[in-house]
Every structure is written in structure tokens, then in C-alpha cells.
Amino acid sequence: MFASGETVRVKDAWPEATGPVHIRTPYYVRGVVGEVVRHLGDFPNPEDLAFARPAERRPLYHVRFRKSAIWPEPKPDDELLIEIFEHWLERP
Amino acid sequence: MTILETGGERLLAAVRALLEQKGIVSTNEIMERMAITDSASPGQGARMVAKAWVDPAYRARMLEDGTKAAEELGIPMRGMPPLGVLENTAEVHHLVVCTLCSCYPRAVLGYPPLWYKSAGYRARAVRDPRELLASEWKTFIPDSVKVRVVDSTADYRWMVLPERPSGTDGWDEARLAGIVRVGDMIGVTVPGV
Amino acid sequence: MDKEAKRAPHDLGGASKFMCEPVDIEPHSLTDFDREVDALRQMLAAKKLMTVDELRRGIEAIPEADYHRLSYYQRWIRSITDNLLRHGVITETELRTALEKL
Predict the structure, then answer these.
(1) How far apart are CA A79 and CA B186, in angstroms?
(2) Is residue C43 part of a domain?
(3) Alpha-carbon distance C96 to B11, whole Å?
(4) Chain B: nearest CA to C85, how far in angstroms?
(5) Contact B156 A40 (CB under 8 A)
């Protein structure tokens, strides 16, 4: 589990390169460091639900990123807030 | 050509006929479901916003748990994804998008508008939100206000609680609800009088 | 951004090819076709025959050119049909026969 305020990095993983998958982690945020805002609850893993496989419940977090960490940003304070499952997060 | 490349209208008619014949989904069920879905509209979200503007305790409950706050106003939420509410302030402006598909707070806003589902909106909202809002909606976010783009990627649905515009002192809830538009609750526009 | 070369076609956030795409902000009413497809999806979910995640997987499997050519609910009915066939709720033979009878 991650705590609110903890620094996390989204895994720089590309499973779509190797076969049919269903992923809810946008490409643009992979490998990017952000901050956990809060745990939103636990939800069945959509990567399994999409293939009608038994889906374990996984913690889902709201994670905040500086937009300038992803795209050049004239307004350095602008942010992105994204729901990301725990298995996509690591400690940097 | 595979069978899935058949035109959508024909696929729908054939699939519905088969499901009806097999006793899986009847025409009546489809009609009932359409009526229920049609009854959700931005007016529901607008009622929540207006109440939050006049009732600080409701506002606090709404920010804590959007689903319960919607239910308090009689909006059906059973079976719907959890609803989160994002509060716009003098410091931060929220903009909701779903870059992966079209996740949208349907329970409180109804069907998503065409623009919300478009490739242009999905691409531009996360990368250049200020330019998108300015060029398409003539919504100008001051430099002093931080833009926080919320990419709705998973199990929650998000709506924006906009700031109450000036010039509305003394207005009752119904009158306030009348000025809240869909775009205000997604963050592409801000309410005004 | 070099990540862009690796994005899947539906994963559109910040996609350069759409950064100059105008957005039609006018209201558009849904057609009966749109509303029926929407209702059918909800009924299939309620009857545990297809999750929304399976709907999305089916949409994401549509080749890129078709994805952008098809309307929103045309993508949905294509994915719904794909899923019903996969689960054997309907067979391709039944579907062909039903299409011929229309």
C-alpha cells in the first residue's frame, strides 16, 4: 500500500507491445514520477475483467503529476490527476 | 470482410433479433432501459451544484462522497460507479477528460456530449488544456489559477463543483441551478450571469 | 515524446496527430440507434453477459482506421457483437442467418 503524499513512479512497462491487453494506465504517464493523493478504494483488476478472467481486487490511487514532467509546460504549476492501480506503481 | 465489419444498424438489428429469440434480452427491456437512461440529465448535477452553493454542510458532504450527495437529492446511483467531486477554487481549476475512452459521470449528467468523446478533446485536454479551453470554448483561465486536468481512467467518475459566480447573491437553489451548464461541471466553461 | 510511438491507437492523451484537431462543441442529439446500442450494453452488463471492460477491449481491438471512421456507437455494437460471439451467446452462423433475414 502507498500512503497519501508518498512519491511514486508509474512503471515504464509496455505490455501492449507483446499481445492483446486492456490497460487503464495512459501511455503518456508511464515512467513518470508523481505523488499519491489518496487511496480511492479497491476494485477488480480491469486487465482481467476485459478478458472475462477472474479479477482480483486491487488498490486504486489518485496520483498527481506535474504536467511539465510529461510535456513542456509554460505554466509550471499545472497538474494532472490520474487514477492508477497499485500494480502499476513503484517506489522510485 | 469479416462479419464484424457489417454496418452498425444491421448488426444491431440482427443481434437484437437473436437475443430476443433466445429469450436473453427483450425489446421491452431495451425500451425500459432507454427511458431510464434518457431521464438522467445535466439538470441533476446542476441541482447538486446549486445546493452546494447555498448549503455549506451539503457542500462538505458532496466533496467527501459524491454518490451519497447525489442520492440525498433523489438521484438514482445504484449500480453506478462511485462519483467523485472536484472543487474549483480561486487557486485551482479542474478539467475532466477520459483519454482512453469516454468515462463520464452519466448518473448526474446524462449521456456524454459528442465533444467529450472526440479524438481532439481527448488528445488536447491533457496536453494543452488552456489552449483548448480558450480556442474552443472562449474560456480563459487566469495565469494565477492552476489547471488540474483529471484523466478519468478507472472506476470513479468525476464532476466539477464550479465556483459560484458573483452577481447571484440572494438567489434560491432553483434559480442557481438554472445557470449551471454541462460544461461547467466538466470544466470546459465556468458559470456566469 | 518518444513514448508516443508506443501508444495504442485508442490511447489518445496528447497524441500529436490530434493536437490540431478542432472540437465540435455544438450539442448533438443521439439517434435511436445510439440509444438502443447504449441500452443493449447496459442490459448485457446487468445480465452478467459482458463487462464494460470487455466492451472496451473489443473497441480497442478495432483497427485504427476503422476506429476513427466509425461513430462512437458503431464501435460499441461492433464490440458487443464480438463479445457475444466470443462467449458463444450467439454463433457466427446464427448471426449470418439473422443478417440475411433483415
Answers:
(1) 16
(2) yes
(3) 10
(4) 10
(5) yes
Could you tell me which of B12, B143, C6 has the C-alpha nearest to residue A23?
C6
Tell me, yes or no, if B157 comes closer than 8 A to chain C by beta carbon.
Answer: no
Residue C25 domain-assigned?
A: no
Query: Which neighbouring-strand residues pair with B86?
Result: B160
CA distance B173 to B188: 23
- If you search the block for the grid coordinates 507491445, which residue do you land on? A17
B103 is catalytic: yes
Q: CATH number, domain at C66?
A: 1.10.472.20
Residue matched to cell numbers 466492451:
C55
Q: What are phi and psi of B158, to 5 degrees?
A: -120, 135
Q: Does a structural domain hold residue C21?
A: no
Is B26 in the active site? no
- The residue type found at B71 is E
Judge whether B126 and B147 are in contact, CB under 8 Å.
no
Render the burial of C37-53: b for 16+ CB within 10 Å, e for the rest.
bbbbbbbbeeeebbbbb
Question: Is residue A69 one of the residues assigned to a domain?
Answer: yes
Domain membership of residue A17 (yes or no) is yes
> Could you tell me if residue C10 is inside a domain?
no
Confidence of residue C2 (pLDDT cuts 50, 70, 90): confident
Q: Determine the Cα–Cα distance for residues B133 and B187; give it in Å rounded to an integer.
A: 9
What is the rounded CA–CA span in Å between residue B30 and residue B86?
33
The CATH code of the domain that includes A13 is: 2.30.30.50
pLDDT per residue as tens, chain B (193 positions): 799 999 999 999 999 999 999 999 999 999 999 999 999 999 999 999 999 999 999 999 999 999 999 999 999 999 999 999 999 999 999 999 999 999 999 999 999 999 999 999 999 999 999 999 999 999 999 999 999 999 999 999 999 999 999 999 999 999 999 999 999 999 999 999 9
Smallest CA–CA distance from B17 into chain C, residue: C98
Instruction: Please state which CATH number belongs to domain B42-186.
Output: 3.90.330.10
> Does residue A83 lie in a domain region?
yes
Query: What is the ipTM score, two decimals?
Result: 0.97
Which residue range forms the structural domain that includes residue C78?
31-101
Domain count, chain C: 1
Hey, where are the domains in chain B? 8-38, 42-186
